[in-house]
Amino acid sequence: MNKFLEKYIQQFSLASGDSIFFPLCGKSYDMQWCIEQGFKVIGVELSEIAIQDFFTESEIDFKRSSNNNFNIYRSEHITLYQGDYMDLTALDLKDCKLVFDRAAIIAIEAFNRPSYINQLLAIIPSDTPILMISREYDQQRRSGPPFSVPLTEIKQLFNNPYQCRVLEDEQLSAKDGLQVLQRALKISKLAQ
Ligand SMILES: C[S@@+](CC[C@H](N)C(=O)[O-])C[C@H]1O[C@@H](n2cnc3c(N)ncnc32)[C@H](O)[C@@H]1O
Questions:
Q1: Ligand 1 centroid from CA 191, angstroms
Q2: Given the CA of residue 30, which atom of ligand 1 is nearest to it?
Q3: Ligand 1 binding pocket includes 44 (Cβ within 6 Å)
């Protein structure tokens, strides 16, 4: 369970039944936690094994269907799209009220991050905020993933009219002494 999600989710004023989007969701337990809090979850993940593991471990029953781009695993409170994130459309995410990006942007190589963010902003409703957990460290000392994604880069990727607000910085020390800054960010569109 991600402690930043638990700590900051109330900042987003969600109502029971609202949908939270998990890009590159893996089999994250955070999805089950959100369902337990009364929210709905939408996720996308390339790995069929990760999705099947999620349903096995959470003991949630599902129905499986397919469209041109995805195998779709659905139950009452969760829809997981198995396929390429870049194939999602705004229709798939029309009900999304929050994006939770944990280990998604930092899993992507620098050259692909603009496409990742451009796609995100194209498919979520324009007033949907993002809770992002990023990491920043000396990339010379470790190749990644997870990659270091500095705050300056995140601000450039989102750009006007988005505002990136740091909710919390946490200093972590890796076993090899590498200092890693873990950061919780609230990213939302400024009122025009
Ligand atoms: C580091 S894992 C993070 C999983 C999850 N967000 C978590 O917090 O545990 C990154 C995941 O992104 C998935 N992935 C990478 N590229 C993808 C793409 N284009 N579309 C969908 N999933 C993708 C990988 O299969 C992997 O499971």
A1: 31
A2: 8
A3: yes
Q: State the pairing for strand pair 40-45/179-189.
A: unpaired
The residue whose CA has the least distance to atom 14 of ligand 1 is 24
What is the model's pTM?
0.98
**Given phi > 0 = left and psi -120 to 50 = alpha, else beta, which region is 127?**
alpha
The fraction of the chain above a pLDDT of 70, given in percent, is 99
113 lines ligand 1 (CB under 6 A): no
Residue 192 has pLDDT above 80, yes or no: no
Which residue of 4, 46, 112 sits with most ligand 1 atoms within 8 Å of its CB, as the best mutation to test the pocket?
46
Say which CATH class 3-9+16-189 falls into: alpha beta
pLDDT digits (tens, 9 = 90+) for 16-73: 999 999 999 999 999 999 999 999 999 999 999 999 999 999 999 999 999 999 999 9
Mean pLDDT of 123-136: 97
Domain boundaries, the chain: 3-9+16-189
Q: Is the CB of 26 under 6 A from ligand 1?
A: yes
Residue nearest to atom 3 of ligand 1 (CA): 103
